[in-house]
Design a protein that fits this description.
- The complex is a heterodimer of chains A (513) and B (403).
- Helix content of chain A is 34%, strand content 25%.
- Chain A is built from 18 helices and 21 strands.
- In chain A, helix 6 links the parallel strand 9 (167-171) and strand 10 (198-202).
- Chain B folds into two domains: 6-95, no CATH class; 98-402, Orthogonal Bundle (ABC transporter involved in vitamin B12 uptake, BtuC), CATH 1.10.3470.10.
- Chain B contains 18 helices and four strands.
- In chain B, helix 8 packs parallel to helix 10 (206-225), helix 8 (155-171) crosses helix 15 (291-317) and helix 13 (269-279) packs across helix 15 (291-317).
- Classes of the chains: A alpha/beta (513), B mainly alpha (403).
- The interface between A and B is medium-sized, with 38 and 29 residues.
Chain lengths: 513, 403
Amino acid sequence: MNSPAGGILLEASALSKLYPGVTALSEVNFDLRRSEVHALVGENGAGKSTLAKIVAGLEKPDSGTMRLQGRPYSPAGKKEAERSGVRIVMQELKLISNLTVAENVFLEDMPRRMGWIDYRRMNASAARLMAEVGLENVAPDRPVRELGVGQQQMVEIAAGLSRQCDLLILDEPTAALTDAERELLFAHLARLKSAGAGVVYISHRMEEIKRVADRITVLRDGKVVATCPAADASIGQIVRWMVGRELKDAVGTSPRRVGEVALCVFGLSRGEAVKDVSFELRSGEILGFAGLMGSGRTETMRAIFGADRPDAGQVYLRGSTRPAKIGSPSDAVRCGIALLTEDRKEQGLLLPLPVRCNVTLARLRELARPGGWIRSSQEKAVAERMARMLSIRCRSTEQTAAELSGGNQQKLVIAKWLYRDCDVLIFDEPTRGIDVGAKFEIYRLLADLAGRGKAIIVVSSDMQELLAVCDRIAVMSAGRLAAVFDREDFDQDRIMAAALSGYAGAQGKAAGA
Amino acid sequence: MSDFRPIAWLAGMPAAVKGGFMRLLALVGAMMARFWRALPAPLRGSILTPPTAIGRAAARCWRRMPSPVRTRVERLAALAGSFAAGCWGGVRAAVRESLGMLLILAGLIAVFGLTTDYFISVSTFRMISRQIPDAIIIAVGMTYVLIIAGIDLSVGSVLAFSSAMLGVSMVRYHWPAWAAILLCLDIGLACGLFNGFVSIRWRLPSFIVTLGMLEIARGATYLVTDSRTQYIGSAIEGIAEASVLGVPLPFVIAIAIVVAGQLVLTRTVFGRYMIAIGTNEEAVRLSGIDPRPIKLAVFVLCGMLASVAAVIQTSRQATSDPGAGTGYELQAIAAVVNGGTSLMGGRGSVARSFFGVLIIAVLERGLVQLGASTPAKRVITGLVIVIAVILDCYRQRLRSSRR
């Protein structure tokens, strides 16, 4: 391996990219050395993903040049970039849900024997790759659609790692991962580094970046704000660069007045995923749900919401002694329960429709005259009011939801439920894939909502987030509620231990991570 | 021409004459305005006084009315006003989004006008307006079904079955026309209900359920009619023969259904839910809205519209033919997709479907006048459908890049 430019693997100079109406990148200089993890950080829409896509050959820059290993490099497409040894693992899942894990991993070049796919060889190598990323319990011939989001992301990463590459781009790889899965990924990155590959690492999680990155480049509004060794920059400094203004590191946790019991869940069970879960939630309280991926948190929430029918158990509302009849999401919404799903693009939003329609969807009937005639001026006013209230950044409420950034999409989902005026709000991974600035806005919003007497559940895989935001943390493990901690008892190690308690023999795996 | 038909008459005039006529009207208007301004002020005042006096009296009368009556009238007026404003807004938006199709239509008419001798004539337009109402009405229902990401392949058979029941009840059992028409509409309703219920209850793709209904209804048609065409006669012809201001009544009904369909789609909760369901049914369900009744209603509507088309077609032919409506489902889908409605759901426009039907009808009529044979006509129509969809694809891209 010759490295004429003194160990520099990739050098991009003066890259610019214009999208209609937006300058995604302007005059960006970026370089990546061998055996280096170079983190790209910035708020959503700062241009990280655009830069990554250009390097990976998915987009063409409008101007600027790139050199790969000293040679001019301008890939015409993903294929050509891959031939040059550049691979990308995208933030959005690109798996084909009806194909098996192994078929997805080897989609581009399946092992063949006389024209037929050699399934035995393919499944064996897929199983080996899965084991490397800690998915040894996932059979390679299982269809991807049966896996959880976090597992799917690991499959995607495994697919990215499956082939030899000199330059790997990871765009938000850990957004849906648990801590244990993340550790396995980091171990793998270390292996790649020692083999001389360069890694471009995009993430919103600061602690993570401080841990794995050698250098950090901060982007803001399509421009490079700073590039420096990771050791030299404090998290506070990076965040300041990113947002261009001072941000408090922690969310203000002013004591709130916790009111009556708003929701009481008793003995909730559903299949293997949820076993005898009981808890109470008071108005004005934020209750966190911690646990490993697949510990049954999402399934519990879906069962409460009526999205999946529970096998057993009751839900009591507002201290009522009679169980609420919740057989479907529409019953739940009528009872004032809202579920903000983990997968906001697939389950929360109508992406091709304008912001306006998304805000008013859940309460459209009240905006209409008898007969269903929508009062359009009123609808517009409502949408604009909600957009302003949550400071959703959009050109107008007629812009489609698909065009918003991740953080603004999440705010849009919140706007929908706020307008519906639900009392119990269940957030499943509210800040997944959202930049730091927007994250803090969401945290403030959560605190604000609780202050207004809403009862809030936050399901999250980000422990720091739960510790910062919640009044109490419930920990789920293998479908059971393992423990509930009050704020004064918050302790990361004890929560982690509780999360692992349900898995006999799983401690080894976590300890190894 | 025995009766005076101003719209057809105006449309039939040569362009130069029409232009001259319009200019004349404008000139007369301007002269009248100048004349009014030239009048001495007192004279003008005295002419205006009687109306103002009437106005004052009306105002006095209004003030004397009991206030509950007044508020109720006011509320009613406000409702009517905003309803009208909404309608107007909806119609304007529909026209704006159909501009491209209007251009294609105008282009087609111009081409056929130049290449044939008699294309731009009253008889052509009367022919088309008599022939397409059933296709238009079916296209409206199909648009709805496609928007909720479904499909209804049974419309042609449902049309035939409804028509057969209309014929049988009138010819064999001597039912009065109104009762037979009601029965006919109920048949459409029942078929739509079956389609909707089965596909929703067992979560089956509507493609396969309605394909079943296509066979069921066609078979039932042959069973009830003993495979015979039934002549009904003048008892049913009235609907097709009637005309409003020179425009055939069926065409007026079809236009009314198009306007209502477009307004329901774009201005009502029901329409918004339809679009939302077609876009992402799971997101709608998780927003606390039960999508099932809405989907059921759409299938029922589609079935009923097929039977409305059956009434009109039966009336036009004065007979009910068990072979009627064969292939209508595909024609309707072609016209609707031509109008930019997505087969994947979530996007569509009734107004544009209307123009889709109209464009195909004009094309076929024009080709007939050019002397094209039926097979050649079908080849050309098919090609034009494909080209139109390709063009629409570019239009979409243009619009999304302009944003």
